[in-house]
Amino acid sequence: MRFKSILVFIAMVVVVWTSGLYAQNMLTPFESNGKWGFKNEHNEIIIKPDFVVVQEFTSGGIAAVLDDTGWVYINTTGRYLIRPYIFDNGPDYFQEGLARYTRQDKFGFFNQAGEIVIPAQFDFAYPFSEGLAAVCTGCRFVSDGEHRAVEGGKWGYIERQGKMIISIRFESADSFQDGRAQVKLSGKEIIIDTKGNPVNNDESPSSDMKHDSGKE
Fold first, then answer.
1. Residue 175: pLDDT above 80?
2. Which residue among 48, 83, 118 closes a domain?
3. What pLDDT is stored for residue 6 in this prediction?
4. Helix (H), strand (E) at residue 68
């Protein structure tokens, strides 16, 4: 009998906890006098309408909002968490569960709960693709007046926890697709696999480069 009571108690705790998560995701945007905020399922104002634009809350309980100083992610109480990297006139997209942010002109990554996973330490970073992200040190933005591009520096690849998998040594690097990425090494464009090995047209690793463990 006591065992059954314990099971009932645990079930009640799980229900309450799950209901809390559900309530978090029930916050919906509303507009008042040209500004946006959030209400709960009972039409109660939870976050005052102080924002120019808002996006819906993610499953992790954060939402991107635009205030007078730019885009920022907030939690379900309205507390500011992190300012994302701006891409395509809005907050950076989450790819493979992570999005980019900048701090003191350095790039890092955060998750859909607004938690920093990879501290800002790179001069630029591409989004994650197939578990890897191209990052650079010493590169810089250049502009033609309308568009910006990243040039220079040395490039390598990190995994989703920030560990360097393919060491920084390339003059340029693209994101991985189908297990392959194009990089430039010693002025030559080559294709590498996810271990950093050059790949010939016959899909076999080239013998002129050893396996890269990411260690320098």
1. yes
2. 83
3. 41
4. none
The kind and range of the H/E element at 22 are helix 2-25
What's the rounded Cα separation, in Å, for the pair 200 and 191? 8
**Interval 23-39: pLDDT, tens:** 445 799 999 999 999 99
Q: Which residue carries 């050893």 as its tokens?
A: 210
Q: Strands 140-143, 148-151: parallel, antiparallel or unpaired by DSSP?
A: antiparallel
Query: Final residue of a domain: which of 37, 55, 83?
Result: 83
Residue 82 CA to residue 161 CA, distance in Å, equals: 18
Identity of residue 154:
K
Is 103 in the same domain as 210?
A: yes
- Select from 92, 128, 97 the least CA-distant residue to 115: 97
Examine the domain organization and report whether 130 and 214 are in the same domain. Answer: yes
What contacts 24+ positions apart, CB below 8 Å, involve 41-44? none
Answer yes or no: are the C-beta atoms of 29 and 54 closer than 8 Å: yes
pTM above 0.90, yes or no: no
